[in-house]
Amino acid sequence: MVNINVDCISGKYSMEQFLQIMRMLRAPEGCPWDREQTHASIRNNFLEETYEVVDAIDRDNTADMCEELGDVLMQVVFHAIMAEEENRFDFSDVVDGVSKKLVYRHPHVFGDVEADTAEKVLDNWEKLKRVEKSQSTYSDTLRSVPAAFPALLRAQKVQKRASKAGYDFDSVLSAFMKIKEETAEVEELLTVDNKERLTEEIGDLLFSVVNVGRLLGVDCEEALYKATSKFTNRFDKAEERIIADGFDMKELSPEKLNEYWENVKKD
To answer: 15-98 maps to which CATH number?
Structure first.
């Protein structure tokens, strides 16, 4: 067993010590909560920790970034330790696998392939990835996009891979016309009590908007993130002014609320 200095006042823990700490938490005499966990039970924890890293990056907070990356690493190790207990794989297999993948997918660094631009690197990466994952058809590449991705991100990746097969609009304008077509179909259902149809048509509309964003080089996930943040900030400022004027938002008419909103936009 690795000797672990639990205080670790004068030095830093090593990766091997970290692995041993996680093994001790999962041991019979370890932590009851950690022992009860499964791959499925901590699935959402992984997602939450990943989003917290992204949040720290967006805020450019060095201390939080370091801490949150550690939490993500803990999730990786947690899953690896559980897999080790099940005799499926261990952390060394995870490290070995990703190292081999990096060497294989960077022949321009570790081999004799020429790739002097980022575009060529990505093109080679995708070709090697298809070979590596035995993706013989373009449909295979579309289906390999994880279903657990945020919907906008998944849509954009699927569209991008379909475009590599030549399945794409001939121009941004034709893609934009598709938005108008899908909008009209949604409009026809506004007075119809059919949630299933509405869900389908609104999905088609959103998918069409993503197509236009993709063709314009816009990251649609980021675009919606920024739009939501902008809405939240404007809402906050409008409410501040409404409260300062002695009103409650719920008491105001839609017209009056819009007046406050427009004033905030002007500022």
So the answer is: 1.10.287.1080
What pLDDT, in 10s, does the model give residues 91-114? 999 999 999 999 988 888 888 888
pLDDT at 10: 58
| Gap between the Cα atoms of 19 and 77, Å rounded | 7
**What's the CA gap between 21 and 4, in Å, rounded?**
8
Cα separation, 154 vs 166, in Å, equals: 19
Q: How far is CA 206 from CA 157, 183, 231, in A?
A: 14, 10, 19
What are the sequence ranges of the domains in the chain?
A: 15-98, 223-266
Distance of CA 224 to the CA centre of its chain: 13
pLDDT tens digits, residue range 192-236?
899 999 999 999 999 999 999 999 999 999 999 999 999 999 999
